[in-house]
Amino acid sequence: MNRLQRTLISLFCACVALWLVAPTLVIVPISFAEKKSLAFPPDGFSLQWYANLIQSPDWSGSILNSLKIAVIVSVVATVIGTLAAMGITRMKAGSGGVVRAILITPMIVPGVVLAIGIYAVYLDHQLVGTLTGYVLAHSMLAIPFVIIAVGANLAVFDARLETAAASLGASRLVTFFTVTLPLIGPGILSGLLFAFVTSFDEVIVALFINSPRMKTLPVQIYSSMTRDSDPTVAAVGSLMFALTTLTIAAALWIGTRRRRS
Amino acid sequence: MRNLFSIGRHPVWLTVPSLLLLLVALGYPLAQVVLRSFTDPAIGLDNYVWFFSRPVNLTVFWRTFEVAGWVTILCLVLGYPYAWMMTAVGPRMRLLLILCVLVPFWVSGVVRTLAWVILLQDSGVINRGLVALGFEKVRLIRTPLGVIIGMTQVLLPFMIMPLYAVMRSIDLRLVQAARSLGARPTLAFVQIYLPLSLPGVFGGAIIVFILGLGFYITPALLGGPRATMLSTLAQQQVLQQLNWGRGGAMGVILLVSTLVLLAVAARFTRRRYQITGGSK
């Protein structure tokens, strides 16, 4: 490949990178707008929309709901998902593959189909707008991510280490907590993170099963966007964007440092 | 405690909690959707006959496939060179390119769609730029074009990641060997590199197309009546018309389309591997 071609492709990739990241950045200036409008570029400067996030019970309530649900979901999905991943790796290849394929299905079923079905079931069993209802649905959606993350880690895990621990007299529980858990820790951690984000960002099922008493943040953002031009959505979006970028940058930085040392 | 230990000897028990959760939160609800599509309001195929006899529904049905198809093609065109670049640069640059893919992947789709609503609105940045350059305003929001632009950006990371995973493992010495035997760069690419990267192309395309078919948020917020997709139509039937049968039938049609597509893809990739002798 000659120099000109390489420069052209580099330029093209720079544009793609810009296209991936830049559009989302327009929400940052809008979150500081003075007037209640989503026009870009905004006029003036104020922090009122950030203050609104804390003061308005609609916003602060939905943020707390989403955090509460996502924390419970990440614990539930990680625990039972990790168990399942360990079960699958210990089963025979054929039956393990079948169980794995079944447990991955939440990823391929279109969201709206699931949402209609879950709404129908929840209406019959008074689960609409309840914590239990959200946790059940979101844990189911998060399980595939935990199984994939932990499964990938178990695939490179040397099972003979467990046998070695057992032959030295360690019980199953001691082996699990002192040998297995530390070695598959990174996989469990990334599964936990995936589960948290899956629940925190989930919108379509939540749109069906929310109630005025219990709404999640994505539903609040969605209904605010369809109702009026309130820059509070930009404020919450900017906060989420900043938190996400910092988390990923930190993870990548730690990752490269660990590899070097 | 003895029971707890014996669980470890029968690994299938470890998967029971997850399978139970799936049965309650996925199996039972899906069964309800299928059941209602055949029984609500009366037993029979009425809801399906209704769906396929209304031109409006068929327009939406084809539009859903058309939009998902365009999004897949655009993601491939944008993602292929990008993924290749990720394998060809130094570690620092690679980290930056990875960050540019991961950040949008983790930022909520609702937030990213919000940004597109702001950019694409009739008095938005893009239209004012066009006017300033002497062009006419283009209707972007509430059109299929606007939906395609937004969805391509939201789904691009799902194309780049499988492509990168495959390209990273391609042995570049094969390309060098072809070049040293006299192949021109284009020929070496078409004959060696492209075929080796095809599993990534198929993987990424299937993921993007399937996610695109069932996409809800971006079409619902960026599209309007002229850009409705199947998911939005099904949601309206259930939440606005309270017509569970028709909404369910649309859901089943969407689900079956997805499953047929996956089955065809699985078959296709398997055959390809047989032809190439399973590569490794």
Write up what this structure looks like:
The complex is a heterodimer of chains A (261) and B (280). Chain A has one domain: Orthogonal Bundle (MetI-like fold), CATH 1.10.3720.10. In chain A, 79% of the residues lie in helices and 0% in strands. In chain A, helix 3 (48-55) crosses helix 12, helix 4 (57-90) runs antiparallel to helix 5 (93-104) and helix 4 (57-90) crosses helix 7. The two termini of chain A are 35 Å apart. The longest helix of chain A is centred in the first third of the chain and has 34 residues, at 57-90. Chain A is mainly alpha-helical and 261 residues long. With 280 residues, chain B is mainly alpha-helical. Chain B has one domain (44-275): MetI-like (MetI-like fold), CATH 1.10.3720.10. Chain B is built from 13 helices and no strands. In chain B, helix 6 (109-120) crosses helix 8 (144-168) and helix 12 runs antiparallel to helix 13 (244-275). Chain B is globular, with a radius of gyration of 23 Å. The chains are: A mainly alpha (261), B mainly alpha (280).
Which helices and strands, and how do they pair?
The complex is a heterodimer of chains A (261) and B (280).
Chain A: H1 3-25, H2 27-31, H3 48-55, H4 57-90, H5 93-104, H6 111-124, H7 131-155, H8 160-167, H9 172-201, H10 204-209, H11 217-227, H12 232-260
Helix pairs in contact in A: 3-4, 3-12, 4-5, 4-7, 4-9, 4-11, 7-9, 8-9
Chain B: H1 2-7, H2 16-39, H3 46-53, H4 55-88, H5 91-106, H6 109-120, H7 125-132, H8 144-168, H9 172-180, H10 185-213, H11 217-222, H12 230-239, H13 244-275
SS class of chain A = mainly alpha
Number of helices of chain A: 12
Tell me the CATH superfamily of chain A: MetI-like
Number of strands of chain B: 0
| CATH topology-level name of chain B | MetI-like fold
State the CATH superfamily name of chain B. MetI-like
Name the assembly state: heterodimer
